[in-house]
Amino acid sequence: MSKAGITVVTADPPAPAVRRLPRRRGIELALIVLAVLLSVYGYCAVGLARYGTLPPGAAGYGAGLGVLALMAHLTVRLRAPYADPLLLPIGVLLNGLGLVLIYRLDLETPGDRAAPAQLVWSTLGVALFILVGLLLRDHRVLQRYTYVCVVAALVLLTLPILFPAVNGARIWIRIAGFSIQPGEFAKVLLAVFFAAYLAANRNALAYTGRRVWKLQLPTGRVLGPIVAVWLVSVGVLILERDLGTSLLFFGLFVVLLYVATGRTGWIAVGLLLAALGAVAVGRLEPHVHSRIETWLHPFASIEAGEGANQLAQSLFAFAEGGMLGTGLGLGHSFLIGFAVKSDFILATAGEELGLAGIGAVFLLYGLLVERGFRAGIAQREPFGRLLAVGLASLVALQVFVIAGGVTGLIPLTGMAMPFLAQGGSSVVTNWAIVALLVRVSDSARRSRDEQDVP
Amino acid sequence: MTRHIRHAQYFCALLLVALLVNAARVQVVQAPSYDRNPANRRPDIARYEQPRGDIWVGGRPVTGSRDTREHLRYERIYTDGPMYAPVTGFASQLYGTTLLESSEDGVLSGADPMLAPFPLWNDFTRARNAGGDVVTTLNPAAQEAAYRGLSGHKGAVAALEPSTGRILALVSAPSYDPQPLSGNGSAAARAWRRLTADKDKPMLNRAVRQTYPPGSTFKVVTAAAALDSGVVTDLDAPTDSPAPYRLPGTRTRLTNASKGCADASVREAFTFSCNTVFAKLGVEVGAADMTASAQAFGFNNGELRVPFPVARSTFDTTLDEAQLALSSIGQYNTRATPLQMAMVAAAVANGGQVRDPYLVERTTRPGGSTLAAAGSRPIRQAMYPSTAGLLRAMMRDVVEYGGGRKAAIRGAQVGGKTGTAQHGLGNSGIPYAWFISWAQGEGDLLPRVAVAVVMEDAEAKRGDISGGGDAAPIARAVMEAVLKSP
């Protein structure tokens, strides 16, 4: 770690004043303390609302979350001192809030507690964050593993086909009682692959190849691998019926291609492909077709006398929340039934924290994404830029797909709300994303700081 | 490249704005319609989350709540359910509410904004008040006497306090237990199917929701109209009425069940219930005065609430003379609820004044403080006080010498009127037996109770004055119970 510049003598008046970039680790620590306190407060609010007393595990929960956050903070302090101070606190707050919501929903299903497992997974996630912070000294190292990443991603995506379907989708593998969603990990690996490949080939993609009318088509040799990978991943996902993730990969692919080449044509082609795919899948696949019907007419099942479906129940939950919410622990989002702790976790937030609450949650995600983009812009080499943009877009798209789905904005596709939702693979993956963003943001500012030092 | 990253950034900002706008749409704009959606169970869950307030009779609650630990947590329970069902109605999680459970639902469920500590307080805190209680005017002894009297029969009893309009007893038979309907399970659905399929209609509140031809009991109204309009000045003068009486403009001859009705005086005709005399009397009074008199007693009023709605008792206003003659003896289109006929008896007992009956003495907050008390009801003068005095004497004669002897109570003044109402196609149905009466105890300044009893299945031969046989003893039991109460 190069800290040579810190001891520069500034006492000499005629010497040009050297302005060090502030490291802002104190701000990060303060925000982390705030995030932990907010989470503990939420935990206590649930207990007070339900039983009139502080829940017995409040101190343990606060201490656990606090220790995890502090260890992550120390890692950042040691190994990424220039990192953006908002990334880690946002992760801690969202993770803490997710634990509160899951704990709250556990009260409705006494036989099926998910919060303890989620806490274990959160610990694993923070451990991965620390591991990345300690081992990955420079994100550019990842460029060496471009093809390892893509092979690993494809293997992870194909693996669940060998396992039995759960709730109509083949996206889980069950090992020793734990169910893992390998597709979640594949997201990060694919983002790394796309970033590395596009960084290496962006000029070829942008400037070579035939020109047809106004569109400049790239040479097949450059585009081939990337389209092949994309087709395989999307194909696998359609086979596994995990359409949310497939939409996510597609979005990631188009955004990175556009950022890397600056060709508007790519967006046109991408949207055309997406539209064709959507129409075809919507027509042919009954599973997807029913999702679209539900989205267009969420109350059709009520009028047909079959009771409210999950989307209708979710909308009822949001509506009950209104502006300020019912208060933690006082809503009835459990009426959604299946997947209330995972895909529909936002409905609980919407009902119990109100529009004010989920507005705040959305803004937290927005802030996380914005800091990711900012790290990308601050970077000077293309791989880091594309990696940061890719990871930030991944979060943005995932939030949009699932939050838009449960609020009736777009057809519902099963997907985990980053950090909030129950699901180990998702939490671990999101901590990896934050770790990589911390790493990229650190290297961007550090390189600038080092250049400024005479 | 930076420029393109910015574009991607704008795109993400657009997604964020879309999410926020859509969340506002769902949570604020569409929320009221989603909240009202029948498939949304939240209003039900909130409603049953706390015990419902109770309905009180004579110093003790006749309702309660049971904690089921289900999503719809508290269920209604009843003590003496069948006896009080015509008052309480039911409060079902599946089938809604009826009668007092329905009309006082706001207080009982806690939704009434008057229960809130401050205006709009609950809208702000999302709190729900504990349910308040409803205290009824019922006299439990009278209610029980009426319920026992009607057991095994089809019919109804309504009893009032003449000076105030307080309802002292309200019984309908056969009755039902409302408790099995309270829940939301298959047991409730089974009970509902059984009760709605029952041909005896146990859930019909015959005392207020069913009208019957009042038969001879309506002669009280006709007599009042005749006296008030001056058609009759001397009760003991012969009335120059033939028996049988040919209905004006027809060849139909009206006969009597009792003998000695030709040229009988009004007093005799009242005591022995001569149809011919009163039919002729009605025609002499004329449609306009008969209608006015009937309406003064409360007929043709569809707006009466006690607080649940009472069926409209009718006296036809477009009549030819033959129809008027029949209407004047409580036939043709004249129909009355038992409660309406109790009001007729009460008017006589109360010097000609009628007060609208009511069932709720007061509603209270959970602590017991009064939320709203029944104010005094508006008075209608149904007849001159002098007319009421004469009618009181005639009604006492019925009990002393006429068909109402079984209603007599030792040591008390009792006035009554029997009735037998024919009905059905060609008068083929079993006649309805009526008895209306009032009673004043030895030390009382005013009559304390007026009662109407109707039985659909009295053991009577057609044309017989059966009201005195079967209905009068029930009326007597009810009146005795009231007079004995402190």
UniProtKB/TrEMBL annotation, chain A:
<keyword id="KW-0133">Cell shape</keyword>
<dbReference type="InterPro" id="IPR001182">
    <property type="entry name" value="FtsW/RodA"/>
</dbReference>
<feature type="transmembrane region" description="Helical">
    <location>
        <begin position="386"/>
        <end position="410"/>
    </location>
</feature>
<feature type="transmembrane region" description="Helical">
    <location>
        <begin position="344"/>
        <end position="365"/>
    </location>
</feature>
<keyword id="KW-0472">Membrane</keyword>
<feature type="transmembrane region" description="Helical">
    <location>
        <begin position="266"/>
        <end position="284"/>
    </location>
</feature>
<feature type="transmembrane region" description="Helical">
    <location>
        <begin position="58"/>
        <end position="74"/>
    </location>
</feature>
<feature type="transmembrane region" description="Helical">
    <location>
        <begin position="185"/>
        <end position="201"/>
    </location>
</feature>
<feature type="transmembrane region" description="Helical">
    <location>
        <begin position="86"/>
        <end position="105"/>
    </location>
</feature>
<feature type="transmembrane region" description="Helical">
    <location>
        <begin position="117"/>
        <end position="136"/>
    </location>
</feature>
<feature type="transmembrane region" description="Helical">
    <location>
        <begin position="145"/>
        <end position="165"/>
    </location>
</feature>
<feature type="transmembrane region" description="Helical">
    <location>
        <begin position="416"/>
        <end position="438"/>
    </location>
</feature>
<feature type="transmembrane region" description="Helical">
    <location>
        <begin position="245"/>
        <end position="261"/>
    </location>
</feature>
<dbReference type="Pfam" id="PF01098">
    <property type="entry name" value="FTSW_RODA_SPOVE"/>
</dbReference>
<feature type="transmembrane region" description="Helical">
    <location>
        <begin position="29"/>
        <end position="52"/>
    </location>
</feature>
<keyword id="KW-1133">Transmembrane helix</keyword>
<keyword id="KW-0812">Transmembrane</keyword>
<feature type="transmembrane region" description="Helical">
    <location>
        <begin position="222"/>
        <end position="239"/>
    </location>
</feature>
<protein>
    <submittedName>
        <fullName>FtsW/RodA/SpoVE family cell cycle protein</fullName>
    </submittedName>
</protein>
